[in-house]
Amino acid sequence: MFEVLQNDILAPNVHRMVIRAPRIAKARQPGQFVIVHPEAGGERIPLTIGDADPQAGTITLFIQAVGASTLKIVNTPVGSSLRDIAGPLGKATEIEQWGRVVCVGGGLGTAVLYPLAKALAEAGNEVTTIIGGRSKPFIILADELGAFSNEVLVATEDGSLGRQGFVTHVLQELIDAPDRRPAAVFAIGPVPMMRAVAELTRPYGIKTIVSLNPIMIDGTGMCGGCRVKVGDETKFACVDGPEFDGHLVDFGLLMDRLSMYRDTEAKILAELPEELREKIIKVKR
Which positions fall inside the FAD-binding FR-type domain (predicted)? Predict the structure, then answer.
């Protein structure tokens, strides 16, 4: 059992949970994830390890409650426990000293970006972080990212914080400035956002790494559910990723696979208690 030591709300339906998991905390590297199984018979949820403290024996997870299983996880009170957490899984991020690096986070992708940006800064890179969201309440971890980023730039769709527009608008401005153009870009967030970033950087030949979130069951390469097409090869995000060259990813296929269970999800949603169903619907809007 894995005890919940802290459970904070960062944004609407976004929680930061600190969980006692000493073996995972000791082995974890940036870019890796865990599979959380909150209770017997429950769904297995893959979540990026946002941070870890090997001395305290804890890991930090950032979770957006968008379905019955994630709601169950974030509603676990401090002092209670989650049944199973398996990890660390996936390949660690390949950290190099590129010089000038831009990290782009959209929505909850900002939380996934946190350990990566931190590791890039610790390796001696000049890190500029761009984070985006629908509006000010959905911008998370700006102060935390600012602690090791040379600059944090914010874009919101409604202009309530930072500049109005999308993260790609801000990234284009950096690329257009000769003294600010990055040698590498890391993008994590909704699939359309990552696709847009990859297409933006492609003509300039800027190395672009994305972190993919396909449907995943066991996280060890056994089920094949997380297969993605990268170049001419089929890869499993759980063991070959989750990070890949954004210029080689078949984003169209990825989006098709992510929509495979849309009808099943709708059926499950219809069978939930009304209060829980309305809460999920509100989050998805």
Answer: 1-95
